[in-house]
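Re-running Protein disulfide isomerase to confirm reproducibility after the cluster update. Everything else is unchanged from the original entry.
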Amino acid sequence: MRSLALGLALLPSLALAGVFPKDSMVKMLDAKDFRKTMKANETSMVAFVAPWCGHCQRMAPEYSKAALGLHPLIPFYAVDCDADQNKRLCAEQGVQGFPTVKMFPRGAQHKPIPFEGERTASTFYYFVTRRVPPSFTKLPNLDDVLPWVERTVSKTRTLLLTKEKKVPLLWKVLANKYDGKLEFGTHRDKNGKTSESLGLEAGEKKDSKVLVYSEGSTAPFRYEGLNKYESLVKFFDSVVDGTADITVANAQAKAEEYDPTGEELEIERKKEAQRMALLHGGYADLVDFEQAILDGAGASFHDSNGFGSQPPLKKKSTTATEEDKPAAAAEGNVPDAEESKVGKDQTEL
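Result of re-run:
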């Protein structure tokens, strides 16, 4: 039996002394790590901080909550601008006050977007999840599927059949990661009619299917592995690599089993509880989401409780104080509240 490891329990301490919590999912980068990270086609958040910065210390728990809730889909990083080896990088990034937080939509390929909202976990969450570049094609109707398949026949394509109204965050992240390497499509198959037209079962209420069309073919085969980030990345890497037999890769994906340890289950439960809290913003203080997960209510919590949008955030002006600025820095960032009307964004298919 093969186990799909979450990898969380094996991660080393990533905390910057005096800033991030010991068990934070925020990964520290030096200048070399930063440039290597930016070569990847990934959406990420980067906080430029200093260990003596009071605002950084107050932000760290909220930034860490967002990092936990979005792991492993969207990585959260931090750079210590007080370290000599990072000062040039921080100057290149225009850091004039601490903390300076930026979203990088697709590594170095897209211009970074400064974060200027309230430094809360929910605000970080909504800010980054709404700005993942749309690298997929939406196919609203059944009649749109075949033309898309034929139009892109010179490429390897993958199509998500989902019953959800919104495109899952996981699919957005994967499409962005493999942009230019695989062609991604998504189709809402609400009643399962498209599945049946392709010779597949209609499926249950929230069943999703991932289909793959090999280059030059208009006949799909169904991905049979786990609909989780790590499993899909492993499979798509095999497809992109071109050296592996896709049929064999699919068989290997099918044989992969999710067999977590007790420690991994505990971490996964905390991740899911944090996601629920982030999605519900201000409700986090009213509902014990971790207890809801323990009580088995996680799968249907949104449907039965009706919480789907982040409550409006109040505007807050928190200009950095003198202690939070480098000696030659200009005025720090003045955060402006992030307006949000976003509902649930799934992290699994």
